[in-house]
Amino acid sequence: MSIVTEIIIDAPVAEVKEVFFDFPGHENWNPFFKSIKVVNADKPDVGTRLSVYMQPENGSAMTFSPTVLENSEKEFAWRGTLFFEFLATGRHYFQFIPVTENGKEVTKLIQGEDFGGLIFYLMKGIIRDTEVSFNKLNVALKEKVEGKPSS
Asked: Name one Pfam family in it (predicted).
């Protein structure tokens, strides 16, 4: 089971990533992942543990500790487990794709997650609410990068 969302941000990839990787700043603009902290290192390299506090749409806030799977030029991804792997696991990713629109470099942000575990098959509403949360994060990042007020 998967969710994939995307948005065009009117700024080059470097600018989008600068805002995204300012983890302490997320509390000021990110409506979904309210806090992202690197736990066992100075930066989010592959294998690093994160502490992520999230507030999903129509759900309870929680903190989880995913492991960074990728931090490349085009993708940042982590893998998290909720309680037990058979219950809920996910590979969450952000892709930063440079595209040209009207002769200007902009960024296509793709945010998605590949889910596994029983909870997602038993509670389909979680997937719908999670997609809403992803889209709200995408819009908030776009507004932050483009300098527009968050709604």
From this structure: Polyketide_cyc2
The verdict on pTM exceeding 0.85 is yes
Asked whether 23 and 36 are in contact (CB, 8 A), the reply is yes
Q: How many domains does the chain have?
A: 1
| DSSP state letter for 24 | G
Instruction: Give the model's pLDDT for residue 14.
Output: 97
Amino acid at 13: V
DSSP string, 28-63: HH-SSEEEEEESSSSS--TT-BEEEEE--TTS--EE
* β-strands 89-101, 75-81 pairing: antiparallel
Cα dihedral angle (103, 15, 70, 113), rounded to 10 degrees? -80
Decide if pLDDT at 151 tops 60: no
- SS3 of residue 83 by DSSP: coil
Q: What is the CATH number of the domain that holds 78?
A: 3.30.530.20
